[in-house]
Each structure stands twice: as C-alpha cells, then as structure tokens.
Amino acid sequence: MMVRKVMIAVLAFLAFAAEAVSADLPPEPLSHAGMVKAAIEQYIIPHIDALKAATAPLPDAVDNVCKTGSPEAEKALQEHFDKAVIAYAGVDFLRFGPMLENGRREQISFWPDPRGFVARQMRLLLLNKDDTIAQPGAIRKQSAAVQGLPALEALMHDKNVPLGPGDAAHYRCLVAHAIAINVASLATEVADGWEKPDGWADKMLHPGPSNDTYKSNSEAAVEVVKALIVGLGLTADLQVKPQIDAKVRLTPPYDKSGLQKAYYATSVASLHQLYDVLNLESWLPPDRLWMKDWVVGTWRTLESSDGVGGHMPHAKREDAPTLREVFDRTNGLRNMVANRLSVAAKLTVGFNELDGD
Amino acid sequence: MSKKSGLWTYATQLAAVSGAVLALGWGPAFAAPPATKDIMKNYGDLAEAMYGDALAKAKDLDKSIDAFLAAPNAETLAAARTAWKASRVPYMQTEGFRFGNQVVDDWEGEVNSWPLDEGLIDYVDEASYGDTKEENPLYTANVIANKKIRLGPKMLDASTIDKAVIKKLNSALDVESNVGTGYHAIEFLLWGQDLHGTGPGAGERPASDYDLKNCTHGNCDRRRDYLKAASGLLVDDLAEMVDDWKTDGKARKALVEQNDSAQLSTILTGLGSLSYGELAGERMKLGVLLHDPEEEHDCFSDNTQNSHYYDQVGMMEIWNGKYDGSTPVSGPSIAELARDKAPDAAKRVDDAMAVTLEKMKAIKTKADSGEMAYDQMLAAGNETGNKMILDAVDALVSQARAIEAVVAALNLKVKIEGSDSLDDPGKIAKAK
C-alpha cells in the first residue's frame, strides 16, 4: 500500500514537472543563451520550488508525531518525507550554484554514505543529548550527516525508540524537529539563492567578463549540460551499478522508507525532462540524426525499468530491461551527451565533482 | 625553504612572471607558440624530475627507518617522522600527473591510498575506533598481531610480513579502505592513531612499539617487519614510476601514441580533476562538512596542510612547465601555449591558481604555527577554521572552471568516460 502511494506521489511530481516543460521545442538549434534560459525557467526553478514546497510541511509533521505518536501522524510524516525525497531526487544532480554553496546539497541529503557516517554520527549525537541542538541554527553547525533527510529517516525508522510522546523519545524528537526545520530552511535558501535579484539565475543569464563565474553563454550552458551528465553518472554508478557489481557496496537511496524505486523513477524522468529542455539534438547535422532514435530508445529502456530489475507499470516497453542493460544504456547516454551531443552543440564539457577517485 | 619562497613570489607576482616569460623569448610577440611535442617533452621531463625527487626522499625515509629500527627511541622516531613529512613534499607535487595518465592511475593506489581502516594493520583504540564496520570485515584484522588473515574463502599466510604480504592487503575483499601499503600505512606505523579528535595533538605512538627488548603493545618484531616492508615497497614503487617517465618509459610512450590534442588534454585533465573532484571534493569539502578528523588526508601526523599546499604547488609547476627541484626543469608549457592562443583564458588560470595558493598558504601558515592544526579547523563550531577550508575549496572549484575555459579555448576536449566499465561481465551478479 505504501509503495503504491509513493508511486502516485512520483507520478504527481512528474506530471507537474512535465507541465513545466511542455512548451514547444524550437525547430532551430537552441542558442547557448537559450539553453540556459530554458533550463532555468522550465526545469531548475520549478524543481527547486517543488523541493521548497515539499520540505515546508516536515516540521509540523514531525511535531504531530512527537505530540501524539498516532499511526495517522506517523503515516502523514512518512508521506511528507517521501514527497520531500522525491522532490530532492529531481534536483540531486544540480550540483552547482546555491546547492554547492556551503555544502547545502550534502546537508539536505548526505547520500551515498559508503562509510556509514549517518549511523555513526547520529549515534554520537544521540548519546551526547545536548539540548542546545534545539536552538535555531544549532543543527546546521553539526556534521552534514546528521542534519538532513537521511538523518531524519534514521530517526523515523528506529524501532527501538520510535518518535513519539514520552521521555524516551524526547531528545530524539528535539533532533528530528531541528532536522526538519533545517531541511526546509536549506531548501528555502536554495530557492532564494536562485531566484533573488542578482541571484544564481541572473548570474547564469548575464555572463560576461565581469561575471565572476560565467564569462560567456557557452560556459553557463556547459554548467547545465554537466548537470545532465552528472545525473546520468549518479544514476548509473550509485543506483544501478551496486546491484550488478558485487564489488560496489552501497545501500540504496532512502531504503528504510522503501524509496529506491521511486528515487530511480524520479531521477530518470527528471533527467529526461532536462534533456528535452536543453534540446541538444537541435544541433545535430542531418547525417547524425540517427542519434535521436538511439536516444529515444534509451529513454524508453530506462523508463521501462523500475530500477531494481523489474518492469515499470505502463511502460512503453513490454519487457523488463535487465539492470545490465539499464546500466549500459545510461552510460551510453552519458557518453552520447558528453562526447557527441555537446560537441555538436559547440560546448566543451570539462570537470565535475565526480572526477577524482 | 627557498623553493617555497620562490614559488610563492612567482604565484603572487604574475605580472612580473609574464614579463620574465617575454624576456625569455617565449611570449607571443616574439615567437611562435610552442609545439605540442616540445610541451610534452617538457611535461615528461617534469614528471621524471618530480618523481625522482619523491624517490630520493623516500630513500631518505627508508634510511631513517633503518636507523630508528636499529635504535628505537624518541629521537630516532622523531627523525623518521621528519623524514616522512619531507618525503610528502615532492610526492604531493606529482599528483597533477594523476587522472590523465593511465600508467600513473594504475599505480597510484599502492602509494597514496586514503582513507584507510588502520585496524587492518595494527592495534587501535577500540573505544573510539570501534571493533566492527559493516562494510569491512577486515576492519580490525590487525595483521601485525595475526599470522593468518581470512580473505573471504582464502587464508592469507602472514606468518612472515614482507612486501608481498602487505601488497595483498590493498583493497582486500574489494574494500577500498583496506590499505596495506604506501605513505599512509607508513604514517600510521610511525604516529599511530590521533586520539585527540579535533583537539590539538597528533598520533602518539611510542618508540617502544618497535623495541624488541622493551616492547609495548606486543608483536614488536612483526611491527618492525611491517614498517620496513612498507618503506622498502614505497621506494620500489617510486623507482618504477621514475622509470616509467624516462625516455621510452611506459608513461611517455603512452602519451606520444595519442594525437596532439589528446596529449595536451591529458595535462589539463590531470590539473582539473585533481583541483575539483579529488582535492576540493573528496579531501577537503567532505571533511569540513562532516567535521570528522578521520577525514583529513594526513590524519595520523597532522600534516594535511602541507599535503594540500604542495598539491597546489605541483599543479602550478605542471601548468607553467617549471620545477625548481634537485634537477631544475623549465621549458615549453601548456600555460605558454594558452597565453599565446587564449591570453584571457590563460590569465584566468594564472589568477585562479594564485588565489588558491594564497588560500592554501593561509591554512599552512596557521597550522604550521601551531595555532590551529588542520583537524582543529574541521571542528564543528570552528567558524574560522571551517571558513579557511571552504575558501580553499571555492578557490579550487574556480580554478577547475578556469582550466575548463582553457580546454575550450584551445579546442581541446576532456574525455568524459562512461562510468567504470564492468570489466568482467562473468563476475557480475546476475541481474534481478
């Protein structure tokens, strides 16, 4: 039942997002400035706003659980949490600008966590029982691993000491409430960072010699194309690969809440939307138009998978693609965007945070 | 000291440097831009000289460890620690050769793997370290205390600790934090765990841990064998890398087999990837966001400020094609080419590198003075220290962006690989 509700939430989120990008794509190559404008107006701002809206109810939802401990309150909190995670999955790969500043992305969602920081540092935080954690802004000074959605999820799903009224959960409730406020506050900061006058949107829309980050429209366009490439890499390497390569030990995203499939579905659909908005294909010369068909087939494959080896209901493909196929196709699309489509669009894609070991 | 001062002056007086470049006849007004083959020859020469200095310092370290083991006491231990820190200076300058040269990337894991679960190697403080870690069955395997270690279905015979045995610990059971060799394994063996958290102080391993007559913590004979094997292996590995950069060495051959654009891209790929994903991300930002002293690069010795600083120094040397080491190298560089073909983009890199160096220098000065060690800077609530590190992170990200602009201006291409390919489909668990 819970899984079905989550998928309904995913579909609702995607319908909203699809509406945001429903404008007709131009027949001519989209200029670099046009790409940036389209990405900001049709993808980035709507999704960032969605994150802000989805995280806003979390503090009250935590409060209700802590005051009543009722199953209804618990259910409501879980539903709000799921929506927040799904909204976050739509912006996970926008790893620049206000998300990058001060480590806000890691503070909102410290995942992946291959070295188990969330569990270890939460344990220490709960042992210390420092009531000042409830003071405004106090949690923000703590480790990123204890101040975002994974930390809140850990508290929500600790069966030994569930959130609720009573002394045993008192301190945990203080922490959970502080985390919920923090996440909502971070999402608001990110939205403000994008949308305020002279904010990041303005910075990307007005490049030039005096701009401290983007010297040209091409550099700003590269930023959003890199986000797409990063997103494809994250999906392949962090969500799919651990399931088919025994050497990669990684817990799926928001596994305690059963959100692995929802996270995958949202990631893929969101990346598809950003891909469409950027319209890199509009730069393809006639002898390269075959790439469009390949890309269409790839999205169909990715969207026909539920991300764990099964079939996505109502998918265009009737069979369930294997995870190996999903991995290879996702990687292939990443290579296509990075090495073919961006070249056709006269963009030079450089470095991103996934470089390095 | 003179080298550091010289570099600092160089980096902060770019206008003067530009003048010097022109005076040497490399500038655009007086000469054609350097040819790729000349840039790459100088790049290879730089690598050979820089790895050569790293090898020389590793040999010094090996000798100092011999002296320490011959007479384990506080003075000889301090001398070995000093030698270890000195060995880091030239090695860190070579890290800009990573991420573009496959020969280096295939080799590096044996030399500078980090972070490591030190309980694999020796005793640890259970109260702070814990005794289990879900992701690593070898978390407290303690090969110094145990003559047999189970590696999945096989038993590792560690009855004699030698180079071959400790090499087998690297990535054992496919866990990256199982590290048996390299600088950080030696660092742990010389310092021990830093149990001061984000407070002042580094590891305090006693010299008696190696004293056969007055042994502390047991197994001093095996600990001695381990330290000597790790030190000797480091020398071997660095000697191999020096050979790889000699004329007709593997690394140089691999480069010349590529076309001109790919060769030049290799230089910038190394600098950009080290700046952003590796140094700004993995090594610096993660630590300060987690406020976790275990996340500092040289966490046992509290030498992180130097490792980061010399990474940046090395990147500037590779960019400028100039190294003032025991074998000075100076010649045609990617920077020179960029200054000719795309002066604005080149200046942006020069400026960005100078800013990064300034931020790194500030961290180094603060830590070297004893006022605030790098792990103290990481502490939750230390706004000054946190900011110093995040400022350096921001500078490194800007530096990567500037390098990216040079890639575009020179019409080069940073190859974006697909994710690590699944090399052997036969080993892949059957898809669900």
Quick rundown:
The complex is a heterodimer of chains A (357) and B (432). By secondary structure, chain A is mostly helical.
Oligomer: heterodimer
Class based on secondary structure composition and strand pairing of chain A: mainly alpha
Overall helicity of chain A = 55-70%
**Spatial order of strands in the largest sheet of chain B:** 1-2
Mean pLDDT of chain B: 90
Helix content of chain B: 55-70%
Compressed to H and E, one letter per element, the order of chain A equals HHHHHHHHHHHHH
Poorly predicted runs of chain B: 1-29, 418-432
How big a fraction of the residues of chain A is strand?
under 5%
What is the strand content of chain B? Answer: under 5%
Radius of gyration of chain A: 21 Å
Between the first and last Cα atoms of chain B, what is the distance in angstroms?
A: 59 Å
SS summary, helix count of chain A:
13
Number of strands of chain A: 0
Largest sheet of chain A: none
Helix/strand order of chain B? HHHHHHEEHHHHHHEEHHHH
In the predicted model, the low-confidence regions of chain A spanning at least 5 consecutive residues are none
Shape descriptor of chain B reads globular
Largest sheet of chain B: 2 strands, antiparallel
Structure characterization notes:
The complex is a heterodimer of chains A (357) and B (432). Helix content of chain A is 60%, strand content 0%. Chain A is globular. The termini of chain B are far apart. In chain B, 58% of the residues lie in helices and 3% in strands. Chain B contains 16 helices and four strands. In chain B, the strands form two sheets. A two-stranded antiparallel sheet of chain B has the order 1-2. In chain B, strands 3-4 form a two-stranded antiparallel ribbon. In chain B, a hairpin with a 2-residue loop joins strand 1 and strand 2. Chains A and B meet through helix 10 and helix 13 of A and helix 11 and helix 16 of B.
